[in-house]
Amino acid sequence: MKIGISCHHTYGGSGAIAAELGKALASKGHIVHFFSQAAPFRLGAFSRNIFCHEIEVMHYPLFESPFYSLALASKIADIAYYEKLDIVHAHYAIPHALSAMLARQMLEDKCAASTCFKLVTTLHGTDITVVGADRWMQDVVRLAINKSDGVTAVSAWLKEETVRMFSPKKEITVIPNFVDTSLFFRTSKPEIREQLGLGDEKIVIHISNFRPVKCIGDIIRVFYAVSRRTEATLLLVGDGPERSDAEIQVRQLGIVDRVRFLGKLDDIVPLLSLADIMLMPSNAESFGLAALEAMACGVPVVATMAGGFSEFIVPGIHGYLHAPGDIKAMTESALLLLSDQAHWLECSNACVQQAKRYETALLVEHYEAYYAGLLAAS
User: Fold this and answer.
1) Band of pLDDT at residue 12, cut at 50, 70 and 90
2) What pLDDT is recorded for position 130?
3) Cβ pair 206, 278 in contact under 8 A
4) What is the pTM of this model?
């Protein structure tokens, strides 16, 4: 198959999944064309079956916003026509699915409807719970869903939320996020600990794009309570709008020497391999890819009962789940895992086994079958 993938290139779960999906499809012989503002951050090494198309946006002084959605639509239409794409897979309803819809309309005069690409839209969460929650955007999101040939969601929770909020006509298929366990596994690299200036203390980690939904302030509060009762260091990986406030909070609490702001990093496996627990206190999470990747590296997760976490984290087995904002409960669970080595080891081993159920190869086969079903129905 010839497959186009439209996605965000920036740090975050949707861009990571889009890139990993494209790489896996290319390794199986499919031709993959990426459409984004820059190469997706997880794309990595060159492949003869992968092509990247950066979207160049025209700036015109009469308008405040650049024409990204229109430029994306034009690029998709151009590549789809000349490369004869079978599928365009849009990761996010807004703007990617809408741009792909417009691209198909551009092609109406050039090719028959039966030969035009099929549009698959994957809902990742923000397009539903944030953009879609805006009353002025609801009809736009609903249109993107209903005009797609196929729609998938990364968790059952997200599917239920989409149905509740939009009552779509289109059936939604759940295909969860995935992890490549040949890349994500616990390794021993003591030099990383030395490079970070760490001793033998416990390591707590968080990885995200530091948006408000990630509740970075709660991570700091939980870690502050933990650090008062055990020797520990917090590794914060990523960047975003909440970072500055988090840095101020760390200074005010007097724990600067126990917190490392590491910024955006592509190779996170060495850091996950150091970690004893991951904190994910999000107040909404459509799936929680960072948590699954941590589990593949044997890291138990203390997270919230918000969204998709409960679909792959069993409390007491893979970590613990609590109500959003329950700092006390999250602190106690973190301390339990950090203080009871036997319990931690049981959870760590269980995490690795659970991650194998979400192996990339298994889920990519689901996408392949999904694409083939849409093409066969045309």
Assistant:
1) low
2) 62
3) yes
4) 0.89
